[in-house]
Amino acid sequence: MPGTTARVPASTRPRRRLAALAAGCALLATALTTAAAAPAAATTADPIAAAQALAAPLVPGANDWNCRPGAAHPRPVVLVHGTFANGSVNWLTTAPVLAAEGYCVFVLTYGEQPGVPVLRAIAPVARSAQQLSVFVDGVLAATGARQVDIVGHSQGGMMPRWYLKFDGGAAKVHTLVGLAPSNHGTTLDGLTALAGSYPGALDLVASACPACADQVAGSDTMNLLNAGGDTVPGVSYTVIATRYDEVVTPYRTQFLSGPDVHDVLVQDLCPANVPDHVLMAVDPVVRHEIRHALDPAHVGEADCWANLTG
Question: Which pLDDT does position 5 carry in this prediction?
């Protein structure tokens, strides 16, 4: 019930985390192979075709190019994955929940590097932002909407800010929701910790992952992105972080400053909830808070009850 805090027994938390990790590994084994076969965006005058070339396959409820937003949810939602992952892996739980509530949901896979199989979101942040621009333009053309909302995890919560600031995205985006975003960079140790979750990624951190270098605190990319302020006018920002993030550290560097910014710590909503960086993409409390950020007039702020109800 709203306003009621239901604590999750400590004895159940390790089992839940292990189950989530096991499920993630199983999804990774199947979805990475499929997503690796997805074609890169072709050069075309048709914005919808260009966006479709970037669409992530096999995501339930997502990438219905005939979807038309209704009055209750007038803006399509674009889901943006994190470093080393892809759209098929990152959003298998969130996309169908949003689609079931009547949103038009679209998921892309971006950031391929030549000669690197399977792993995605490793290209330079600026190049990935251009792919996001192509995808958003196609979504708007297909749905007839004037703006989208973006929900991104990790790099996927930070990279859209480059699109907003440098690629004309501010006029096309109403709300940006970042889950554990690398907004002000992290340490190389943090990126190495993340790479350990993805087979083969550790070998790329130092040699073939421009996005990793871009996300190191103090990099030229971070300095350009945050020069003159964290936000651009006209966009609503929500950042959802966890105290137990081992990748983007310190976790408070994820938060933004500026007008229309809502910084949220999961443990302030539910002290019993302890997702790490990767599990932020599948956590029920986080998923509830995403829904609140997208529709605050009708979805209340999350609490521990959301951990049981989603």
Answer: 36
